[in-house]
Design a protein that fits this description.
The chain is mostly helical. It has 21 helices and 2 strands.
Length: about 450
């Protein structure tokens, strides 16, 4: 009689990722939309002060990451942020997080579109095929992720080293050409430093947290990590600080070499790179820097979206078959198809890239606000593990830090709402209403059966 194949669950996933693998995933997630796509939009919001906006965004990001640093220092959270929401806020909120996280993943399309933009900068003849090119790029990265976390991590590491080299080259050649003498005054290019005042600076800073805040994506790889308790806090802090420093110099090149309106009109960093780099290095930057930056972000965005939802499926917030893992690759292949089906139309129907990013930001702001406040319960829930944590602080300091985090996130949410049209605001409201109704339905129908998805370290 044939033996029934054992169903694979998150607790069965092989722990293959070391610190450098995790670091490459974090940096690859951070570097991408920030400098290569979103910096252009931020330049429009605040002018040359875009470098200051990146610094402020990094401060926002560090505050926002504090709850995840504390939580990951005491728990292996196999479901990533889903598990964090479940443990520290509650069951129904975890269900709410599940639905909003699915509907907030339209931002994946943004990175595929960005890659296509840079390819067209290199080969202008491809301009007529922009939509189809974006669609093909998205498809290829989804296929790559079907082969499993190990293959995804290998591709990430390969792109990571070339990416860092390209960005360092761009910075080394660009910084000396920045017009520093008038940069922080109101005369350079005949424009003020703050083109839209303090309000524009803060709006740009909040918008750029999407660019500087990618390090916490590694929480979704907790089931795959060898030592998350030590590696995750270290990687979140170091990757954010290192990339933010690099961003500040890169942003100075973006705002201080060419008039901002020319960079905005181009929509990419291509014109600046062509101006400051020798021809061979220009092509190296465009491929290894711009294209690989967006590629690493798209790659890790796809992979990191899966584990939290697999855990949610195991708990019953979604039908179990949606979160099933492939027996060989250990990938949630049905979820991959769903995310592909959500993002492909965003490309084919030409949805606005900036709006996609802000939609995801606002959804993330709302859920992260409550998750941040919930971590204040860590001394009560895990007293011994918290005492052992390398990041242990007194209850008073814990309350102060997490309160500051929540306040920072609330301010970001307010700033991210600025400039959004009623259509996008309506989509956000509809998303939240649908999530609440779905949680009520699954709970009322008795479909939810919460299982422990964490291990105390």
């Amino acid at each position: 009689m044939a033996q029934t194949q054992k169903k694979i669950e998150l607790k069965d996933v092989k722990q293959t990722l070391g610190r450098m693998d995790i670091f490459a995933i974090a940096v690859g997630q951070i570097i991408g939309a920030g400098v290569m796509t979103m910096s252009i939009a931020a330049l429009k919001m605040t002018g040359r002060a875009v470098n200051i906006a990146f610094v402020i965004a990094a401060v926002f990001t560090i505050f926002g990451a504090i709850p995840s640093i504390f939580a990951s220092s005491v728990l292996r959270m196999r479901g990533g942020l889903y598990t964090q929401a479940l443990v520290f806020v509650g069951e129904k909120f975890a269900g709410f997080y599940t639905i909003t996280s699915i509907l907030g993943k339209l931002s994946m399309a943004m990175f595929a579109i960005g890659i296509a933009d840079y390819l067209i900068s290199l080969v202008p003849g491809l301009g007529a095929y922009h939509t189809m090119l974006s669609f093909v790029i998205l498809t290829l990265f989804f296929i790559l992720n079907f082969f499993g976390t190990e293959w995804m991590a290998k591709a990430q590491s390969f792109m990571f080293y070339f990416l860092v080299a390209a960005l360092l080259i761009f910075t080394a050649f660009g910084v000396p050409k920045v017009q520093w003498a008038g940069y922080f005054g109101n005369e350079l290019f005949g424009q003020p430093l703050l083109s839209n005042g303090i309000g524009g600076l803060l709006e740009a800073s909040s918008y750029l947290t999407f660019a500087t805040g990618g390090a916490t994506v590694i929480l979704s790889f907790s089931a795959d990590a060898k030592d998350p308790g030590k590696d995750f806090p270290f990687v979140i802090i170091t990757s954010t600080l290192l990339v933010a420093t690099l961003y500040a110099f890169l942003a100075s090149c973006i705002g201080g070499i060419m008039p901002p309106e020319e960079v905005i009109a181009a929509g990419t960093l291509g014109p600046i790179a062509k101006l400051i780099l020798p021809t061979p290095l220009y092509y190296f930057f465009m491929i290894a820097g711009a294209i690989f930056a967006l590629g690493t972000t798209l790659n890790s965005s796809i992979a990191s979206a899966l584990k939290p939802l697999v855990s949610a499926c195991e708990d019953g917030w979604l039908p179990a078959w949606i979160g099933q893992l492939h027996p060989k690759t250990q990938v949630a292949w049905v979820l991959l198809i769903i995310f592909y089906a959500v993002n492909a139309p965003a490309i084919l129907f030409g949805l606005d890239v900036g709006s996609l990013g802000k939609w995801a930001l606002i959804i993330g702001n709302v859920t992260n606000f409550f998750i941040s406040l919930g971590v204040i319960r860590i001394p009560k829930l895990f007293p011994e593990a918290w005492e052992r944590s390398a990041f242990h602080v007194s209850n008073g300091v814990l309350t102060l830090l997490l309160g500051g985090t929540a306040a920072t996130i609330a301010m970001q949410a307010y700033l991210n709402l600025q400039g959004l049209n009623l259509y996008i605001i309506g989509i956000n409201i509809a998303t939240f209403i649908f999530a609440v109704l779905w949680v009520w339905y699954r709970t009322k129908a008795g479909k939810v059966n919460i299982r422990q998805s964490y291990e105390v370290l």
